[in-house]
Amino acid sequence: MSQETTIRENLETHIDEHAHDHGHDHHDHHQSFISKYIFSTDHKVIAKQFLITGIIWAIVGGGLSVLFRIQLGYPDADLNWMRPFLGKWITPEGHIAPEFYNALITMHGTILVFFVLTAGLSGTFSNYLIPLMVGARDMASGFINMLSYWFFFLSSVVMAASFFLATGPASGGWTAYPPLNALPQAATGSVLGVDYWLLSIVLFIVSVLLGGLNYITTVINLRTRGMKMFRLPLPIWAFFLTAVIGLLSFPVLLSAGVLMLFDRNLGTSFYLDQIYIGGEALANAGGSPILYQHLFWFLGHPEVYIIILPAMGIVSEVLSVHSRKPIFGYTAMVYSLLAITVLSFIVWAHHMFVTGMNPFIGSIFVIFTLIIAVPSAVKVFNWLTTLWRGNIKLNPAMLFAIGFVSLFISGGVTGIFLGNSSIDVELHDTYFVVAHFHLVMGVAAFFGMFAGVYHWFPKMFGRHLNSTLGYIHFWGTIICAYLIFYPMHFEYMLPRRYPTHAGFDTFGMFAQLNEFITIAAIASFAFQLMFVFNFFYSIWYGRKLRVQNPYHANTLEWTTPIRPGHGNWDGEIPTVYRWAYDYSKHGRDFIPQTEPLSAYELEHGEHGDESDSDIIQHEKHNG
Amino acid sequence: MTGWLIFIAVLLVLIVLFQVTRTLDLVSQLRGDDDRQLEQNTKLHATGLFIFMVLGIIGFFWSFRHYSDTNIPVASEHGVYIHNMFIATLIVTGIVFVVCNVLLFVFVYMYRYRKGRQAVHFAHSNKLEFIWTVIPTIVLTGLVVFGLQAWTKITGPSSNDALVFEMTGQQFFWTSRYPGADGKLGLRDYNLICPENPLGVVTKEYVEHRLNLLEGNAALGVMGEIPSLQKRKEELPALIANLEAEIAKRPNRYKKEELEAELETLEDELEDIDDKIKIRMLNVERIKNKYTEDYYMANSEAMTWGYDDILPSQLHLPVNKEALAKITALDVLHDFDVPHMKVKMDAVPGMPTSFKFTPTITTAEMRQTLSSNPIWQKVKEGDTDPMWMNFNYEVACAELCGVGHSAMKYILVVETEAEYEAWLAAQTPYWNAVASSLKISGLSELAPRPVVEEAASDSTAAPAAADTTAIAINY
Ligand code: HEM
Ligand SMILES: [Cu+2]
Ligand SMILES: [Cu+2]
User: CA of B453 to nearest chain A CA: how many angstroms apart?
Assistant: First the structure.
């Protein structure tokens, strides 16, 4: 596949708007399989590539967690049956070797945070929805977009390869703190695994930056006629700001990673000072391990918002569509997204309250951290009000969106504990933190992603997912998620990243609880496998989508053909006349964005607060 | 065999389940009345969510009771501030948690889809949005103010008569150090660390000893690390050549693999040996550059602080007296974590940190308290006493530090002032145990002479040639 053809193809779709009349058939025109499905520049295909790669990584990452949970829940069990596929990482007594346990948790965190919830979530939905929802034929640069996926793919290959190193993959935590990760003699995973890890992350950052540039440019430049910024559906705002955060924060991780590569391979001392290890007093002097933590968390905290903002956007849309109500406080939602974007850059050191950082600096970060809880709270209240007096249709997408709100509340409130530095002294690096971030970020972001997949699957593949399996998936997942992560709060004194707590009397009392959590984790994994089956089965055998706009939604993606070709709309790109949330307005179920305002109608946000008057009208109607 | 049977059975069940779900979907499709179907589904799941919420909230309150025994009593002064903050935050956020989740599920139940009903177009309300921006702001401001007050107290300067001790983390154990009779902890330099000087305490003799260990000293019969490595470097090529010849001679694969592995180790050793030599030469250089006559002159008093330092095998602290932990690490990050005291502070190589705290409950009192706790009344496997009888405050490591992270346990004993004094009096300086085994020409006039009997009995107990990874400090 040469660059030339890509560009030619691009031009063609932009010039010849009628090249894709065939709508729903696969073979289309002269595109080969390779250029259509592998090195495609169509944002919809790239989105699916991100999604499917993300799903594969999710299975791997989730599978790893099942392995280490088994060790944690059953520290005395004989795990020799794992030997066929884990080999020497099973000790002669049949336990998971502690160094491999560390590698498992490291890889689990890295894979889920970066590959699944960043690439799999942003990569999929930003790619899929931005052009469709702003009314563009494709991304600003299809070619750069394709590169973005392939850099992700390369990064994935490097990370996967590290599993097969004789000394194992990186094992110093997903945060990769030095000196543990900077010194080959400090851990088996640090011998070579960390080099692979760093290389993979560097490639990944390139992918994120290429993708982000495209998302930003597309949202700014390629909106269709009439699509003002404040008419954009909320997911687009979320994807846009996510890309902005990524563009500003990932380069910092890049520099942190490159400096670590220098420390590891060139003998520099950015992060190292006065170290005595393995019987040797190393020559490194003058560096600081804390410097790395500042650089890492300057990305690391924004990263958690890179993960959650897209999910918030998706959930806002899904909640509004399926409750047949406008999203409540659209403007406040946009401003709270903006506030989160800005604030996410000035709270990073709340991860470092007990590193010996100057306590005064800690105080500043306490203040900013608790300020960021305000826009988060506003969003929750707005979601709740969106549901209030709606006409709520509970399909699996909507259930997952509701689950998201519940999990975000439950996980968010514990952030208030952690953000207060004095309480964090007690809670830092314990299972309380694990519970916090899994609920608020891990599981919640997954719920946002599932809401998106169930909602847009028919648009993506022209077929429906099996909804009964979807319902089972929802119930299994939410019940297990709470059973796993809620009780973890009670382990608030239990340190993280221990393969066994048996050495301590104080920690021993949680053995039973750990076993229970492990069982719930395995069950939850089984439900996810069921979803994966449903997903792939339905791509080929699902019930066919027969109508263009199955949910009676307002946004532009539902004005494209049932199976849109490269270029999205057959004819001209539609023009937009209103915001995306005119549901149940003036007695009409929905009014698509493409419908002009009628003569007497005020647009949302214009003077004359019609929303309130609408209620009064309604009140009168209902007596 | 049974494994396979179970596998097949599970598979069959799954297939049946899947067929059922497919039929359900098909049936709904055949009925054609999507709306009615959706209404029924919505009712089912809205009810489900409602029940889920009710059970969840019952579970929420039940769990506090159920886990009440796992709460560990707070055994330090500042721990109480933290605990109070925790409880205040728990109440505030507990209300938010319950109210928001209840609203969520109740709204879903109340406003579930019914055919023909219409939702209300309610897009925004400045008043409402203002209210719920302001309320969280006020509540959070309150929490911040109280939190920062506690934080300032916790991190403020320690009092002058605080009991100072030092904790050093290294892969994978803790070493504690008390200042001894002079009340001053000896200076430290990581360049001086060796088996006889596990923390790199600075004294004139340790400097000389370390240099001798590195460079060798024929007069004292010390080969020296650098000369040994250099010798080894000269030998290695011949060894490798021999081994290669041996491998080439072997006609079949008999034992060939073992030899090849051996060869690889030798080659790796040769590859690394220059680095090893270089590191040690730089080590020598740094020591020589630093410990000049000028340095000795300027620091003659400080160089004596280390002689009476104590390196006990457990931490002992008097109750109700402020203690200041100076926290350091030798190799990677560790974290000094005392769960009962709510003490947690990273140990960072190259950057000493500290944490002050006042224990308020002695170990004996805590045992008494725990004797009525069902968890601590249990008897551990292979034990005869209930657990509370052997309760001890445990120090853990709370920052991932490698393969032995979960093994970094250390015991902290809190006792009365008198008990503490008695314990302290029974400790002997670490120096006394090792002085006689140092490779030096003679003890300087600075060093206190080791007490004869003790030195004799200690030298047997002291790890004569122990490696750094297994320092046994027995008194
Ligand atoms: C309500 C607002 C929030 C506050 C005040 C808050 C506060 C904190 C604090 C202080 C920590 C550090 C705890 C420690 O390590 O001792 C933390 C950890 C974490 N938080 Fe939050 N958080 C909030 C919301 C979120 C959200 C929305 C996400 C993700 C979407 C998130 C993801 C995480 C993650 C991933 C960690 C742990 C990282 C690690 O150590 O591996 N938090 N949070
Ligand atoms: Cu954070
Ligand atoms: Cu550790």
Answer: 32
